[in-house]
Amino acid sequence: MEFVRVARSGQVPEGYVRRFFAGELEIAVARLRGTAYATSNYCTHLDCLLSSGKLVDEGIGCSCHGSVFDLETGDAVCPPATEPIRTYPVREEDGDIFVGITEEDVASGGPRRRKVVR
C-alpha cells in the first residue's frame, strides 16, 4: 500500500466532504469530529456522487435518495442503499491528507459510475 497526497488539510474543513483524485482513483474525503476519512465517491444505490452529499452523525449521506454510509467501515446504515462503499486509510501529516491505495485499487480504477448501456 502506498499513501498518496490528495489534498491540504485545510481543503476539507470540519463537516464537509470533497472530491479528490489519487492518481486516476476518484475518492471522497470528509472530515467529521476532527477526523479525515476517504471513501469511494459513488453511492452503491444509484451511483450518485457522495462528494455532493452531506455529513450526518452516522456518516456520509447521499444527496440523491438519502442513503447513509459509515465513514469507517463503508457499511450502508440507512436505506435505500444496502451495499457498502469502499473505504481507504487516511493519514494527516504536516498539513496534508494522504490516502492509502493499493496497486489493485489503481488497476481497477476503484468504484466508478456505471456505464449507461444504450
Which SSEs are present, and which pair or pack?
Elements: E1 2-8, E2 17-22, E3 25-32, E4 35-40, E5 54-56, E6 59-61, E7 68-69, E8 76-78, E9 87-88, E10 90-93, E11 96-101, H1 103-108
GO molecular function, one term: metal ion binding
Keywords: 2Fe-2S, Iron, Iron-sulfur, Metal-binding
Protein name: (2Fe-2S)-binding protein
Structural class: mainly beta
Integer average pLDDT: 91
CATH fold type: Rieske Iron-sulfur Protein
Q: Which architecture per CATH?
A: 3-layer Sandwich
String of helices and strands: EEEEEEEEEEEH
- CA-CA gap between termini: 37 Å
Count of distinct strands:
11
Strand order of the largest sheet: 2-3-4-9
Give the proportion of residues in helices. Answer: under 10%
Radius of gyration (Å): 13 Å
* Morphology: globular
CATH superfamily: Rieske [2Fe-2S] iron-sulphur domain
Largest sheet: 4 strands, antiparallel
Number of domains: 1
Q: What is the chains' assembly state? A: single chain
CATH class: Mainly Beta
Low-confidence parts, pLDDT < 50 over ≥5 residues? Answer: none
Q: Helix count, per DSSP? A: 1
Strand content: 35-45%
Summarize this structure briefly:
Pfam families: Rieske. This protein has 118 residues and is mainly beta.
Structure explained in plain terms:
One of its GO terms (molecular function) is oxidoreductase activity, acting on paired donors, with incorporation or reduction of molecular oxygen. The chain has 118 residues and is mainly beta. 5% of the residues lie in helices and 42% in strands. It has one helix at residues 103-108; strands spanning 2-8, 17-22, 25-32, 35-40, 54-56, 59-61, 68-69, 76-78, 87-88, 90-93, 96-101. The strands form 3 sheets. Strands 2-3-4-9 form a 4-stranded antiparallel sheet, with no helix packed on it. The longest helix has 6 residues, at 103-108. It is globular. It starts with a strand and ends in a 10-residue tail after the last helix.
